[in-house]
Design brief:
The structure is a single chain. The chain contains 17 helices and eight strands. The protein has about 325 residues and is of the alpha/beta class. The longest helix is centred in the first third of the chain and has 17 residues, at about 75-90. The radius of gyration is 18 Å and the shape is globular. The protein starts with a helix and ends with a helix. The structure holds hypoxanthine and zinc ion (ZN). Zinc ion (ZN) binds near residues 167, 195 and 220. Belongs to the metallo-dependent hydrolases superfamily. Adenosine and AMP deaminases family. Adenine deaminase type 2 subfamily. It is an enzyme of class 3 (hydrolase).
Length: about 325
Amino acid sequence: EITEQFTSGLPKAELHLHIEGTLEPELKLKLAKRNNVDIGQTTIEEVQKTYQYDDLASFLNVYYPAMNVLQTEQDFYDLAFAYLSKAAQNNVRHVEIFFDPQAHTSRGISFKTVIDGLYQATVDARALNVDAALIMCFLRDFSKESARKTLEEALIYKDKIVGVGLDSDEHNNPPLKFARQFEDAAAAGLHRTVHCDIDQKDSIEHIRQALEIMEVERLDHGTNIVEDPDLVNLVAKKQIGLTSCPLSNGFVSPEMKGKEVLELLDQGVKVSIHSDDPAYFGGYISDNYFAIAKKFNLSREQVVQLARNSFETSWISPEQKNIYL
Ligand code: HPA
Ligand code: ZN
């Protein structure tokens, strides 16, 4: 029987975590006050009442407007350092943090403000024994031209970024829309991953594009791949990581895709467990491990394998990987 103590103590790599999704109601209110931003709520209860969503689009409609409270470099630092302290408590040894620069540059915050604040927090987190890297995501519902400009800016800070990702509204925004930016990012030595959220329209086609044309190294969520045995064989063979987020999935699917995760694990796919937007989906990484372990009665070996997969498919150097594996 898996306990919370076990999932909490297990050394983990967090590979699917949106920093903007770690904005807890308390910090949201504090930053709103500090920056004189009216978010329409003044108590934690009122903020929590706005957290109503049952699909990706309705979640994003709550998620993006709240980012208005993030204004200064200090705000981004505080957000990231608060998360990294939580990561340390969860025995996260390595984390690759997503951030959405266009969600900020589109409202007049400079790329520099965002990355300087986030990056300094990752430097200071070394004192907490957490090794942290940043993954810049393109917003797939923004234009290609906006993505092109964003990559151009990002490349100035190339040494502070480990890779690129693709998130936000998947509907009618296939990965291939950003093929050029992913090619340019690869040429600049950046790693690549793409969100293929659960149960989206054209899920399998999006997964196919990401794997076969854009040659991503991981898929975020991606568990709908079980519908296509050929693609499952491909990700198993190429050791592509699939970053599943049970509590996030639970908002959309009653079974949190647990059966799919177990089936993939059984077939040797490098699937792993993460938290997506913990401040919005009710739990950090240890809670996500515990939720799936409990609901699907996972064995200790299965839980340990999920954690091993997170280190194996992380973008840390092979020497560093040996320390964890
Ligand atoms: N999918 C797409 N965009 C997102 C997500 C997600 O799960 N979380 C934060 N932005
Ligand atoms: Zn995500």
